[in-house]
Every structure is written in structure tokens, then in C-alpha cells.
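Researcher: We're teaching a course module on how sequence relates to structure. For the next exercise, students receive a sequence and then see the predicted structure as C-alpha cells, so they can try to spot secondary structure elements on their own. Here is the exercise chain.
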Amino acid sequence: MSRVIVLSDTHIRRGGKRRLPDAVYDALDDADLVLHAGDLVSDGVLEDLARYAPVKAVLGNNDVGLEEALPVELSFDVEGVRVAMVHDSGARDGRARRMHRRFPDADVVVFGHSHIPWNEEGVDGQLLFNPGSPTERRRQPRCTYGVLEVSAGAVVRREIVPL
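Model: And here is the predicted structure for the students to work with:
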């Protein structure tokens, strides 16, 4: 089984005062993989996360200067589960069909941008998963991050964790 910590929209600037909450660092202690769905803002976030587990990340609209380091989208396998990542999945209306067209082979599509947690099945059972933001809740009641546990080709746990 692999435990995957899913983050997005951390908006942490190098040398700034903002940092990940302690609860996220606690969760990272048990991570086998970390996913970041964009808007890291600085490469220091990647370095920080990589101290805990391998990191896969995509470019967000606020990731100025990271264009060479991060892809716009990414697809990979975790224990037989096909995962796709992109920062902006577009508007809520039509999202499930749009993501299925864009990533037809993905079992899970991880995205960010809106800061709105999302954990729902889309077309043909494809999981659409936005962890929200652990640092910038905007209009949400709480900051959040995500946890996925995968084993033998299946997502066995999917949770949005409020902070």
C-alpha cells in the first residue's frame, strides 16, 4: 500500500513567513509519495517536500520562473492506479466530461487552482480530486490537504483532511 499526501495552492514564497501547517508535516512523515497540483510559487516548496518522500508536481498559474522545472500536466502509475495531474481543471460545470476527455486512461485526476476541495467520481468512475489549500482557504471554511491510499490497482482511501 502507498500513502500519498496531496497538496495544491500552497503559495509559499522563498524567504517568506508562510509555511505548511504542522499537521501537514506530521502527515508527510508517513508519506510514500507527495503530489503537488501547482501554485507552489517557489522551488523551495519542492525541496522541502522532497525531504519526506518523492514528489511529483505540475506548474500552476502563479509558478512564475518554474516553467522549466515543472510540466503543465503529468501522468504516472502508483501501485497500478493511473494518476493524472493538472493545475486548472476549468469550471465546475462540465469538469467530469472535460477531464475524462483530457485524461481518458486516468483512474484519478488530481487538480488544484480553485482552492475548493473536491473528492467525487466523474465519468466512468474516474476520481476527481482537489485537495484544496493547506495555507490559503479563501472562501472555504477551513484549509485542507488530501490523502490517497492506493494498493493493488485500487484507491482504498480518499480523504480531504481539514486543518
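Model: If you want an answer key for the exercise: The chain has one domain: 2-162. The mean pLDDT is 97.
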